[in-house]
Structure formats: C-alpha cells, structure tokens
Amino acid sequence: MSSNRKIFGPFNRVEGDLEVEVEIDNGVVKKAWVNSPLYRGFEQILHGKDPRDALVYTPRICGICSVSQSVAAAQALAEAQGIEPTPNGRLSSNLILACENLADHLSHFYLFFMPDFAREAYTDKNWHEETARRFKAQTGAAFKTVLPARAQWLHITGILAGKWPHSLSIQPGGSTRSVESQERVRLIGILGSFREFLEITVFGGELEAIAELDSERALTNWCDNNPGSDLSRFMRISHDLELDSQGHAGSLFMSYGAYQTDADQHLFRRGIWNNGSAGALDVSEIREDISHSWMQSQPGPRHPYQGTTLPDADMSNSYSWCKAPRLDGEVVEVGAVARQLVNQHPLIVDLVSKHGGCVQNRIIARLLELALVVPAMENWMRMLRPREPFCNHAPLPDDAQGAGLVEAARGSLGHWLRIKNGRILNYQIIAPTTWNFSPRDNQDVPGALEQALTGTEVGENGKESLMIQHIVRSFDPCMVCTVH
Amino acid sequence: MSAPFTVLWLQSGGCGGCSMSLLNAEAPDLYTGLKHSNIELLWHPSLSEASSEEFIELLNAIIQGKQHLDALCIEGSIMTGPKGTGRFHVLAGTRRPMMDWIEELANQARYTLAIGSCSAFGGITSGGSNPGEACGLQYDGAIQGGLLGADWISPSGLSVINVAGCPTHPNWVTETLMQLAMDDFSSEDVDDLRRPRSYADHLVHHGCTRNEFYEYKASAEQSSDRGCMMEHMGCLGTQAHADCNTRLWNGQGSCLRGGYPCINCTAPDFEEPGHPFTETPQIAGIPIGLPTDMPKAWFVALASLSKAATPKRLKDNAVADHIVVSPTIRPTSPKKS
Predict the structure, then answer these.
(1) I need a labelling partner for A137 at 20 to 30 A (CA). Which of A295, A415, A437, B287 fits?
(2) Residue A65 burial by CB count (10 A; 0-12/13-18/19+): exposed, middle or buried?
(3) Is the ipTM of this complex over 0.90?
(4) Which of A60, A112, A114 should one mutate to test binding to chain B, selecting the residue with the greatest count of B CBs within 10 A?
C-alpha cells in the first residue's frame, strides 16, 4: 500500500463548514490538516462600534453558542465598567446559559453524533438494527420525544431571554428581564419536565445517581442494569467499536470555569488538567499564532488584547482561516471532558486516567453534565428573588478594557475588549473550536483534532472507516465560532 | 401520495441560528410537521446523514437535472470577498466558492428562499466595513441586486422569497414551505421587500405587552425597566414588520417580553442603525423614527397630550423592574351589592 492524500468535507452535523485533509499511509492517518473554510470578519465589524453594540453583534457569531457569546460580551463590558451583576441577574444569566448548553449537549448526542452509527456501513453489527430504528437521521424513533423535549426546554429562554438564539437580555449588570413569582414556578415546572425526559430516555434513572457514578466500573454497572437507556445504547456501541481507544489528542485540558456563582466562584471550577494533575490557569499566557492561517503576518504569537484579525487569502504555508491559540505555547483541548477533569469529577478522572481524552469520554462527559447541571438549575431557580433588582447600571468609561471568559457547551470561549474614546478599539474572540480545531503553530505542532486523527485506521483510501467522522464530531465542533 | 416537495438547505456566511431556531418548531415538532406536509429534506447541514462525497454527488445530481429540487433554502450571507473571488467561503471538499454553487443550484430549483436576513439582505455579516463583502441572494442591503441580480427569477417565475429575520421564527420557515408545497403561494404573498406577508404584514408593536405604557408615553429609562422602550431605548417595534408579539418565540417570548428593544431584524440594513442599538436618537426631544403610517404632527400632539395624562401607576411602573403600583379595582357591573 502507498501513501496518499484525501480530503473530507463538507462535514455536516457540525455547526458550520469544515474540511479535513489527511495523509494516509498503509491505511493509517499519518498527518491531518483541519481547514475552517468560512471567514466573516466579526472582529473587523466590531472595530469602531459603540461597545454596548457588542451585545447585539457577538451573539450572532453563532446560532448554537449564541448565549455563550452574549455572556462573554457582557462579562467583558462589566469588567470594563467595573460592575458586577445583581444576584438575580447572575442567576438569570446562568440559567439562560445552562439552558443553551444543555440543549446543545442534547442536540449533539441525538442529532449530530449518534446518527453515524445508523449508517449502512454498520449493518453487520448486532447493535445496528436497534440503532438505526432509534437514531437514523431524520427518521429515528428517538426524535419523536427528543425534538419536543428540546423545544419545550428552550421555553426557559422564552421566559428569561425573550427568545433563543440571539437574545439581548444578558447585560453587564445582570438581566433585562425580571422574573415574577408565578414565572419562577413556571420555570421550575419546565425544568421538572426536562428532568423526567432525561431520567426516562437518556439515563434510565435519577440524575443524582448518574452524578454519583465515580468510576468506569460504576458506569458499566449502571449500563448493565439499565440497558434500555440511550446512555447504555451508546456504551454498547462504544465498547464494540472501542471508542475509548480512538481520537486521543494531547494531555493538557483547560476550563475557564463554568457558571460563575459569585465574584470568584464557579459551579465547575477554573483551571487546567495537565497529564493527570490539576493546576491553576494563567490566562495571560494565552497567545494566538497565525503562522498557518490566512492572516496578514505579524512578528509572533500575540495575546488577544494585542491581537489583530486581518485576513489575507494569499498567505503561503497557510491552510485555514482559523488561528492557532496556545496556552504557554502548548496545545490545549477544551470541552465538557476538560471541564469535568478540571472540576475533578471522579467518573471522568477515572475514565481519562484509563483511556485519555478519547471519543467515548468526550461523549460521557457531555451526558454527565446533563445530570450535573439540571439539579444546579433547580437550585438557582429557587434562589431567584422576584421584586428584587435584576440589573445593575453603570456608565461606560471612555478608555478601558475587559475580558469575558465563559464555558460554552463545547468549551472555553474568551472575548477581549479594548475601549478607546468610547469606541471599540479592539475586540478579539477565541472560541472553543478555535482551540480544538486549530491549525499548526510556528513550531509546526498540529492542533488538537489534527493530533486526534493521527494514527486512525481508515483503510487505504479512507472510505472504509467512519472513524474520522466519529472523532471529528466527538469534539462537538462549532465552526461558525471557530472563525467568526 | 404525490411526489414529495423536495428541499435542499445550505449554509454560507451566517451563524446557523436560523437552523437552530427551526428545530424549536412545536405542535407539531419539525419532523412531524414536514412529514405530514409531504416535504422531504433532501439534505440539511445539521440534520442529514450524508457527508462529503455523498453530499457532493447530490449537488451534482441536482445541477445535472437528475434529482428534482423544489426549494433551495439558503441560510447565511453570500460571501463574495475577497475582491469578488468568493474565497471567504469555499465549500469544503470542493475547492469551489460557495457563491458559485448557490448560483448554479438556484437556477435548477423551482423556488429559492433566503432563510434569514443574512441571505435576504446581507444582514449582520455585512455590518461595519463589510470585510467579507457579504450580500444577500437578490439584495445588497436595501438595494436590489445581490448575488443573483435584480431581474433574476426562479424557474417557477418567482423572485427569491426573503424569509428575513435574525434569526427566523421556525414557523415563518415551515409555513412558507408548506404553502409552497400546497401550491398556495404566489407573488401576491410577498411584500415590497419580498418577505412573506404572512408575518411581514404585521408590526412587532402588535400584541406588545408594553402597549399601555406606549399609549401614555410612560417610558423605560434603563434596561430592565417595564415601560415603553421607544422613547429612550431604541425600540423599533412600531416600525418593524413581523408578528413576534402575536406569534411568540420559544413558547411565550419575544424581544420586548424579554425586556429589550426590537432592533427591526427583518429589515435590510438593520445591522447598521447609525446609532447605538439600545439608544433612541432624538431631535429636540422627539424620537427620530415615528410609528409606521403615523403623521408626525399628530404623533407629536397626541404624545404630548398622553404624556400629560399619564396615570401615576404607569409613570411609576415604567421605571421599575417589577409592578410597584397595582391597577385599581373598580366595579364594572351595574349590580349593587
């Protein structure tokens, strides 16, 4: 057999357009190049705008992480203004963000990821018939309950944010939408209905029991005892296809901390997870490298406060509109698995210690978060205080800067804003998939997906394996965020 | 059953939000609604199985006339940059600018629909200096032209149907597709900007829960206030064409009900209002931009009159984030107790 190159794309069931080129040698991926083929130019659009207008523009970077973008923009503005949200405002923002993130986890599992196992290529598998019946794209039986459950779940945003996606309710000082006491109980009702759906359909048991799973063995036992749940269906497939040995990237994971509960507390803490141990995150060590991006050249990698985004389609040695963010020079993986490692959830710590960051563990971490966040939301809803303020107000300074660091469903999202003479001087955004799907850097080190694809067995022309599809989608990529 | 009404959905220079919104369809859900309207999604980027080569084969089959296509739905702006080359969006796996694919496919589809303000008019992606040289299918902002040109018509004889909005309401899309599938849609069913009149003949103002505040010009002064947002907060609900406050979003929401102003997202050039989105520009204390179809002199006269007559309840509640003065209870029946 020989070495050859093959291009995959477009990848559907990821958000936005994506192309992957691989070099195959003896049926194994030797090298991979990830290309984000769409450039729109939000950073250029924002230049010179009234800083408050970022709350209108940035959510529209992405239709699936829209609220995450809102929260990041609001935080960046809040830091520039030197204000904090009211307690109600913080709760409300967290509820809206959690609603989006969990809807995305659900969409990823049912709409984007599982349908690949219903493909005809797997007809010889003993799990195929059931999988096709349940998860086949567009016609699978699961959608009869999943679509209505998802739509009703998003009623939380209907109440708290006016609509989803693209709300303007999240503000630096909290929320534009105060909640009355009857609305609070309505929210609790919607949440209960979603909890029931998760418990019956996804897990086959109580969320609290899922949250307490503390090892691979406990997870296996759960699946053995609840074979009719979609979690168990996935685990049977994963076991058979050995998804725990596929799609390893590096061993450095990062989380900005998810759901800020007060000035320096998060529901899921901020930090890094480096080769099996927890550490502090120093965001001043973030740099964006553009050595392989279609961007006008600059002397070296830059921190986003100093960064620029000026496209140049003719740059040689470049193959993506995406930049290459690095933390202290290192490639980082972000997402639910990173969040739960940094937060040291015992199940994810155990799974990753045994199998690394892999296709299976990325999926499990996402499902686990459904079980962890819904009870937290229940608590937040009860903590809302109708008749108390939902929004603080403060003037906008003429010269200031601020950063917004949040966790979207698919990982760490950062906004860096500089204001001069009351206008946006510079606005730089690093999205979750910018980290995960970055091109090579100036040391020629490939990004996380490029590493994850290397070594994958695909057959000589790549057609014989769907593994590339599984690996790509295991990151829950959002390409419209990646390059914006 | 007759042959299904086939739909191909492609995305270019947008955020994918109209697709995500589409999934919010309820009673019935999206798949049930399409199925019972005999609409077949040949391919949708978020929902279909086919990837890479299988998908490119489908595009080629449509272009060669081997696969019948009733409706081409385009979401996202057309990326014509840099310098008209379309390289800002080269469709993955094809080395060919998306704008070229779109043009070729549009000439095959019986109908072409712009889903969202990006593909209708350029939208958010064409904001600021428009670095991506983004435009709509048949408009560049409010000016006719765009990718396909002002005079273009689809094989059915219709121009591009602009299902504008940022994002689109799921049922603006599904109901337009259903009307097309039932052959119940003609050039009479779009307004002058070629938006479906089913929703564009309404104003966002209709059904706004802040209407009593509007009547008395009891205005919100900062975000989270309950009052009318027209005078200070940049609200364009009295001018914006859409049925957001009668149709409602995600069960019971709308921008206004969410506590923030309407930014007129169904209109061309909404992305560049010429002032901060959440501030109303004023001349001599009078907001620029009168309610649609309202003569200026009457508006000024009525506004000053109603402002003078504002009840205390509205005055106080307008600048609070919860009800601070309840409505007075008054008997409405002639019966005496």
Answers:
(1) A437
(2) buried
(3) yes
(4) A60
Cβ-contact B316, B325 below 8 angstroms: yes
Whose tokens are 């303020």? That residue is A389
> In this predicted model, what pLDDT tens digit does every residue of A30-40 receive, in sequence order?
999 999 999 99
In Å, how far is B335's CA from the nearest CA of chain A? 32
Written as six digits, the tokens of B303 are: 């506004």
**DSSP secondary structure code for residue A122 in this structure:** G
Sheet holding B71-75, edge to edge: B39-43, B5-11, B71-75, B111-115, B161-163
3-state secondary structure of A423: strand
pLDDT tens, residue by residue, A198-254: 999 999 999 999 999 999 999 999 999 999 999 999 999 999 999 999 999 999 999
A52 with B277: Cβ contact below 8 A: yes
Three-class secondary structure of residue A31 per DSSP: strand
Q: Which residue has 């014509």 as its token pair?
A: B80
pTM higher than 0.80, yes or no?
A: yes
**What residues are paired with B143 via a beta bridge?**
B140
Q: Angle CA(A75)–CA(A78)–CA(A81) in degrees, nearest 5?
A: 155
The letter for the amino acid at A137 is A
Q: How many CB atoms lie within 10 A of CB B337?
A: 4
Q: Kind and range of the H or E element at A105?
A: helix A87-107
- Please give the torsion angle defined by the CA atoms of residues A402, A407, A408 and A412, in that order, rounded to the nearest 10 degrees: 80
- Closest CA in chain B for residue A477: B46
CA distance A325 to A317: 17
Which residues, 6+ apart, have CB-to-CB distance to B324 below 8 Å? Answer: B316, B317
A254 forms bridges with which residues in the sheet?
Answer: A272
